[in-house]
Design goal:
The protein has 128 residues and is an alpha+beta fold. The protein has one domain: TT1751-like domain (TATA-Binding Protein, 2-Layer Sandwich). Helix content is 45%, strand content 27%. The chain is built from 5 helices and 5 strands; from the N terminus they run E-H-E-H-E-H-E-E-H-H.
């Protein structure tokens, strides 16, 4: 996987977000924050055609574990997931925790990142 993993879904934007949140919860992740760039840009007087919703998600146990080993990992936490539309199609995706944590060159954290990535991918696949 590269830096981005993404799947297409036939669900509407709101349906995809709702199901994704449920699937994340089943995998011990919670949504800490959510932002729709389209709404924010419109609020600032800028046109943006498609919805682009960023969800910051976290598994508290795993976050604590990596932060205790290297506090600099906090610069790439929480994990970012996106539900977006393009040409009337909805996509669910994420940035790769394994790739991001891999930038810190600490092998012991790589296994945690692999587990996180596996859980997030499962949540996406179960959401489509």
């Amino acid at each position: 996987m590269g830096i981005v993993y993404e799947e297409k879904t036939n669900k509407s934007l709101n349906e995809a977000i709702q199901v994704l949140e449920e699937k994340l919860k089943e995998n011990n992740f919670g949504v800490l924050w959510q932002l729709n760039f389209k709404d924010k840009l419109t609020e600032k007087g800028l046109d943006f055609e498609d919805d682009f919703v960023v969800l910051e998600v976290c598994n508290p146990k795993q976050a604590k574990e990596v932060l205790e080993k290297n506090s600099h990992i906090g610069y790439v936490l929480p994990c970012k997931m996106v539900v977006r539309t393009e040409k009337n199609q909805t996509y669910i995706g994420m940035t790769s925790p394994e790739t991001l944590i891999g930038l810190f060159d600490e092998l012991e954290l790589k296994d945690i990142a692999k587990d996180v990535e596996k859980s997030l991918k499962k949540a996406i696949i179960d959401s489509i």
